Amino acid sequence: MNPFDQPGPSASPIRPSGAADTNWISDFLRERWGASTIVVHDEVIDAARLPALIAEPRLGLATYRRLGADAELVTLDAVPPGRGTGTALIETLTSRLRGEGCARLWLSMTNGNLSAVQFYLRRGFRLSGVRSGAVDRARELKPSIPSLGEFGIPIHDELDLCCVLDPGIQGLPAPAPWSERRPDPVAVARQGYAEELRFTAPIRSAPVVKAFATVPREHFLGRGPWRILSPMSMAEYWMTQDADPRHLYHDVLVAIDPMRRLNNGQPSLWAYLYDQLGLSPGAHVVHVGAGTGYYSAILAEIVGPAGRVTAIEIDPSLAAWARENLGLAWPQARVVDADGFVFRPEQPADAVIVNAGVTHFSPAWLDSLAAENGRLLIPLTNAEMWGGFLLITRHAGQTQHYPARYVHQVGIIPCSGGRHPEAAARLKEALAKAPFTAIQSLRRAPEEPDQSCWLAGDGWWLSTAPVPVSS
Hints:
Radius of gyration: 27 Å
Number of helices: 12
Distance between the termini: 70 Å
Strand content: 25-35%
Structural class: alpha+beta
Number of strands: 23
Helix content: 25-40%
CATH topology of one domain: Aminopeptidase
Largest sheet: 10 strands, mixed
CATH superfamily of one domain: Gcn5-related N-acetyltransferase (GNAT)
CATH class of one domain: Alpha Beta
């Protein structure tokens, strides 16, 4: 396809993209490119998550990214071509980048798009290099890349073009940013974030640290700017100044739906909790309350390619978002649209992690635990959404006695189906008598509560006594 137009002025107003454009950008890229992901210079780029300029009324789109002192134009489309929309987008982008102090604007294209070569050369770009066979390699990752271009030209190679924006460096040779493999500033920020969590949580498990250093948080939170809740002030959100993903690599909560106070949880809390679980490669984790999938992806990294994560989400829109976010990058994670309070996996779980506050236990969670060292991580919370995480462990196939211990305090959204006013009142009474730290075991029917009972529910009770030795 030829997404470009002929030289000429354009009356189309150009504006930066915003949160309201997210779905349109994804649909537009899929229509024009077959997918929102672009495979170029041996890299997979999700263009739908990049900064973008839009030619109104949504007649054209340019996606781009900063690479150190330079920038890359990732996609450019104008519909229909021939009206100057592509020219207007290029002129606006170069002006914008020049104002930011950007030195060069780069782009890559296939050898079969001669119209695009002509378009860019007329607008100040120069041919910088050829990567022989690069499209053949890209086609292994994205088979939909066509084999023939304009005039029946076989597509095998990539061409690099560069437009110098800084007048002070005209004529100076420079390698393309991807040829030097310069450190990605977002990846550097992500690594620093993980190292900071290692100290502040603290985290002993190297796989947990590596997971937080690997999974791109921005991939699960939509386009910025983002609304942030700092632990220093949980009363109000504040907005990041721009859409730079590095803003997300701090120990803060990020809004998913601020009207519902639904957030992407605090990283240090979940890093600490996952560290306490001691998950092994190949483990099966049931994640109740997956949200948009970020922490499901973290868990998928921890258990590795041989492991499995069953991510449960009751909200259909969030489940669809999580499924798209996890996509092909984490095939070991499966998203299920279901009520997590009653969901029973097909196979036992090495860990069940409940990501929302409850007043009582679900028998399904306890019954789903693997016979040896199956663990349930659950937040018991009061009517004000505050409480504590308990870690319940199953040993030797036990169905009545489970060691239990308090892990950490928490404030968290309520779990659908996991709350009842009478149960909340009983929890309040239990906390008035003794703190969470008094809990040492969970007992189940037919055993009846005794004087060690801390809190009783339907078919279960928490005890301040340890599991009997005979168990």
